[in-house]
Please model this.
Amino acid sequence: MGKYNIDFTNIIDMAISRLRYPHSLGTKAKEEYAAWLREHLCETAGFLVEQQEWEDLRWLAEQFVTEFSEIETILEAAKRQEEAQAVSMVMDIRHRRFPVKKKRFCL
Model:
């Protein structure tokens, strides 16, 4: 219901809050919040960087995203805002969650 009547920024806050603190959150509702957040990941990350919501951005990068492409989306949003703190934090999380595998040369 909220996705049709509420301001976009309020939907971001609501979706993140419900997923971070899922008290009495049903499975279907959880899936809907997660699907909406994944669909609007770039806008959400940009909003969080703009508002300097570092804890929510950290949660988004550490707990919510599951694929490398999603963390890259968050990193690009931080770069567009030219916010060094956000870029550094997301890059650190990216290196911990998705480490680069070193190639080994053997004969």
Remarks:
- The two ends are 61 Å apart (CA to CA).
